[in-house]
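Exercise 3.2. Students should predict the tertiary structure of the chain below and write it as structure tokens, then compare their answer with the key that follows.

Predict this chain's 3D structure.
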Amino acid sequence: MKNIEEREGETFHYYSLAVMISAKQINNLISQNKFDAEAAMKKVSELETLVAQAKEADKSGMNFSFINSAGQYQLEAKKYVRRIRDKVPYSDWDKEQLQDANTSWMVDDSFPESIMRVQRNGR
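Answer key:
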């Protein structure tokens, strides 16, 4: 990151890489069975700032799809982290669906659902 910043400045290339690194860190954190929701929410807020900076750096508007997908991921991650932080319980049906990789994406504000929604919208 530092090399890109020194060579190019804080360009869209710089921010797009920062967004991807941040999203990967969030994924690694929230995909665990137990995680610190406050730390995750802080990371999600940082990602929100990076997405806004990437959008600002994209003067041509040619990277709309990337920015839109990153923004959608940030929103879905925020909803999931809020659910965990606020201890919103899953129903018995939701718990059953979460046990099966083929149905886990159907549970609102779950990690699998968040990933699936971003993948669908990113196409």
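Discussion points: Residues 64-85 form the longest helix (22 residues). The chain has one domain: 2-121.
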